[in-house]
Amino acid sequence: MQKHFSTKKRYLTDDEKRKRAIEFNEFCLDIEKVDVEEFVKSDIFDETIELKCLDCGFQEEIDYDIVSECWDTFMSDYPVSYCLKCNTSDVVPLDVYNRLKK
Ligand SMILES: [Zn+2]
Prior knowledge:
The chain is of the alpha+beta class and 102 residues long. Helix content is 32%, strand content 21%. Strands 1, 2, 3 and 4 form a 4-stranded antiparallel beta sheet that branches.
């Protein structure tokens, strides 16, 4: 499905990837461990999205994983979430905000 908004991708540096893999191995004792050097060789990125409230203009950047998990793609072309500031469910991706506010 085509996304009607943009997200930000930031690739991790080798040091960050190494640190993340080591942390993962320390954390997940029972699960198969990650091969740290293999992990460092692969492309790993964090994806975030800029969200803005249509009511009060409160803006925040959060992990796209969190947003996409609670996004019902059958209901809407874009994720909508609750505003921490004014408690309305009018928080939309920044691109959508700019389109609606025009
Ligand atoms: Zn708000």
